[in-house]
Write a structure and sequence with these properties.
Layout (H helix, E strand, L loop, with lengths): L2 H59 L4 H16 L3 H22 L3 H4 L2 H36 L3 H4 L25
Length: 183
């Protein structure tokens, strides 16, 4: 066989293997994004499961704070009904703000703050928020890796139908500000 034909065949085989390797790396990174999003979704669901008990506990002590309770309930429903990651991110931010308001209301009711059920729910919610924060950081890390993989040359030539994924960012500026606590 002609050495030029052999060289061309070797080059084609190497290029095919290289292309398959890049494609597999893109798919692995994409799947890691889905897995990291599932961790966020799990924590959002855990938080949503805690909220009805928290709202009912607060209702017993602060029934006239219905506007705050309704905001928490509406935000919880928005998270549960959101279908896309972007919609869930936005709804989760709204829910975080509503929960901050709820805990600010609780500060005005010493007997509520002393209620064991409320304290346990508050602790569970704080634990869930910590887990959610960690899941968001992990998600953002794998999304950044995925976006880098599909954006750099020569991977971008083989990325085809893969588009960048959004990171989980705080879009509400009020969530970035420290709450005003009065004693």
């Amino acid at each position: 066989m002609n050495p030029i034909v052999i060289a061309v065949i070797v080059i084609v085989v190497v290029l095919i293997i290289w292309g398959i390797s890049i494609h597999n790396n893109i798919i692995r990174a994409y799947n890691k994004c889905d897995n990291a999003w599932a961790a966020i979704d799990t924590q959002l669901q855990r938080r949503n499961d805690l909220i009805p008990n928290l709202v009912n506990t607060v209702k017993g002590y602060a029934a006239h704070e219905s506007q705050t309770l309704e905001a928490v309930t509406a935000a919880r429903s928005a998270v549960a009904n959101a279908r896309t990651p972007e919609a869930k991110m936005e709804a989760a931010g709204t829910l975080s703000n509503a929960l901050t308001s709820l805990f600010a209301v609780a500060e005005n009711y010493p007997e509520l703050k002393a209620n064991q059920n409320f304290l346990e729910l508050q602790s569970e919610l704080a634990d869930t928020e910590n887990r959610l924060s960690y899941a968001r950081m992990s998600y953002n890390d794998v999304v950044m890796n995925y976006n880098n993989i599909i954006s750099v040359f020569p991977n971008n030539l083989l990325a085809g139908g893969h588009s960048p994924r959004p990171s989980f960012q705080i879009t509400d500026e009020s969530a970035r500000q420290a709450p005003n606590v009065q004693f």
